[in-house]
Write a structure and sequence with these properties.
186 residues, 4 helices, globular, Amidase_domain
């Protein structure tokens, strides 16, 4: 699969993110934005959540529904996308509504937007390119595999819901894993 063209759009705080040795990167974490579109995901990525460093939460790459690939953070920097795994991983966000806008409501946990062929083809091309750039890259996981935290449901305090469920049940792992050359880490 050929590498897709990448639109470089660094986040305003990219230079404040911790630099890292690319040789330490061995994991790709697949996310879905759980937002309606790429523009909203960009707005969220630009928000500063960590006053001390002046940085926020973001993946390295975003793949829109049309298959376009946008890079918000250089792979030589640690992006904040998965608790406890950021220093060793690349975060790839697929634009998908997920549970938006009621992420933590017990009555709104279905994730029913499928991932399109253009998005998955772009993902596979990007993964192939990353494997060529990062010889230590060996693993792939979903955000939901690595962050299994449950929290109180916003609409029903007696119930608990998963804090992170992305990329969700409609992500085509059976297609992606055999095609990407990485092993699934759970």
């Amino acid at each position: 699969m050929p590498a897709p063209p990448i639109v470089h759009s660094p986040l305003p705080y990219e230079s404040r993110l911790q630099a890292r040795d690319r040789a330490a990167i061995d994991l790709v974490v697949i996310h879905c934005t759980e937002l309606p579109d790429l523009a909203t995901a960009r707005e969220f990525g630009e928000q500063v959540h960590y006053a001390g460093s002046g940085t926020g939460n973001s993946g390295h790459f975003y793949i829109d529904r049309d298959g376009s690939v946008h890079q918000y953070v250089d792979i030589g920097r640690v992006a904040h996308h998965t608790r406890g795994h950021n220093a060793r991983s690349i975060g790839i966000e697929l634009v998908n509504t997920g549970r938006w806008p009621n992420w933590l409501d017990a009555g709104h946990q279905a994730m029913d937007e499928p991932y399109g062929e253009a998005q998955i083809d772009a993902l596979l091309g990007l993964l192939e390119s990353l494997r060529g750039q990062l010889p230590g890259l060996a693993w792939i996981a979903g955000h939901e595999d690595l962050d299994t935290t449950e929290v109180e449901a916003r609409d029903d305090p007696a119930r608990r819901v998963r804090r992170k469920r992305d990329p969700g049940p409609l992500f085509p792992w059976a297609t992606v894993v055999p095609a990407c050359g990485l092993q699934r880490q759970a």
